[in-house]
Amino acid sequence: MIEILLTRLPHGDDLPEPAAQTAGSAGYDLASAEDVVLAPRERRLVGTGWSIAIPEGYECQIRPRSGLALNHGITLPNTPATIDSDYRGELRVALINLSDRSFRVERGMRIAQMVFARVEKVAFRRVDALPVTPRGAAGFGSTGI
After folding, report:
1. What is the pLDDT of residues 85-140, one digit of tens each?
2. What is the model's pLDDT at position 145?
3. Shortest CA distance to 22 belongs to which of 118, 113, 117?
């Protein structure tokens, strides 16, 4: 288990801490710190009232909540969003309304979930040619034929 340091910001006073909803949940729900109306096709950055410190070697991925996506067309335009270990600002969630109706985000509503993952550092080595594979350079959809 890794330890995530958590700071409540002044505008997040009455909001719940990020939390897993069940023992088997991979994600920790984040609630909105503001009331927002998302018009159809509108994107907006929504504050959560929390800042975190992630240990070096890890990232925090911000992901949509499946119920909001399925039932209301509310998702994240950059999913999963990555919060790096050296970021200390407020956790803010980029939401987008893909539906044809306005959607009201209310303060305290769970709007996204955080999943923490290990990040491996890599060393790039330039070569003249890459190793050959059966797939080669075939792109999108090439393995489904």
Report:
1. 999 999 999 999 999 999 999 999 999 999 999 999 999 999 999 999 988 888 87
2. 62
3. 113
Q: Quote the tokens at residue 32.
A: 């909105």
Nearest to 72 by CA among 109, 47, 107: 109
What pTM value is reported for the model? Answer: 0.88
Architecture in CATH of 26-121: Distorted Sandwich (2.70)
Report how far apart, in Å, the C-alpha atoms of 139 and of each of 24, 130, 134, 142 are. Answer: 35, 16, 12, 6
Cross-sheet strand order for the sheet of 28-31 = 28-31, 110-118, 58-63, 81-83
Tell me the longest C-alpha to C-alpha distance in the chain.
Answer: 58
Are 45 and 112 spatial neighbours (Cβ–Cβ below 8 Å)?
no
Which sign does the torsion angle of CA 93, 96, 99, 103 carry? positive
Interatomic CA distance for residues 5 and 16, integer angstroms: 15
